[in-house]
Amino acid sequence: MQIILASNSERRKHLLNEMGLDFIQVPSSVIELNNEHYYTEVATFNAIRKAQDIAVNYPDHLVIGADTVIEYQREIIGKPNGLADAKNILLKLSNASHFVVSAVSLQSLNAKIRCTFAVRTEVHFKAFTPEVVDQYLSLVHVLDKAGAYAIQEHGEMLVDFIEGPLDNVIGLPCQALQKALNAIKPFLN
What is the domain-level CATH number for residue 17? Predict the structure, then answer.
């Protein structure tokens, strides 16, 4: 059964390649929902909608939908609206911790597979100055990244330590995904 990643994310593509999976990318066009208080539910709902969007057109395939959100003080921190917003977001997160929740939905309509899960990682940021933020923003394109950072790109400038899977912060919890794929393997053609 062909696997489809319902995302255009280069980060997720890279992680799936590292897992050794044979897949194609067919990006979902659904508009992500955002509710400032229900971060796990929002990520889960978005992942399900992305997988469903593609599964309808590829009912014999296994579709992977994923969504990652950042929660800070019970508020979702989305993608920045520009560099000034990115700087404000990073300064708000300085010397504090936040949660990264990645939800994944596996769906195959004809095989009647629906498996959804979410993984949470706590990220602790260093205390840093506006100058460090400016330097970081000059090195990393962040406008397409929730929380205005990419841990895999000069993350050492911002991150003190994490509690939970690193790949979850990058956008796809690979160990949990592998576990789910192993669980549904008997149902795949």
Answer: 3.90.950.10
β-bridge mates for residue 125, sequence order: 159
Mean pLDDT over 52-57 rounds to 97
Q: Which residues pair with 72 in a beta bridge?
A: 75
Q: How open is the CA angle 44-12-67, to the nearest 5 degrees? A: 15
Per DSSP, the three-state class of 178 is helix
Q: Give me the domain span that covers residue 120.
A: 3-187
Active-site pick, 22, 60, 67, 160? 67
Q: Are strands 113-125 and 23-25 parallel, antiparallel or unpaired?
A: unpaired
**Per-residue pLDDT tens over the stretch 139-172:** 999 998 889 999 999 999 999 999 999 999 999 9
First to last CA, the chain: 6
DSSP state of 81: S
Is the per-residue pLDDT at 186 higher than 90?
A: no
Catalytic: 67? yes
Count up the domains in the chain and report the number.
1
Which residues, 6+ apart, have CB-to-CB distance to 84 below 8 Å? none
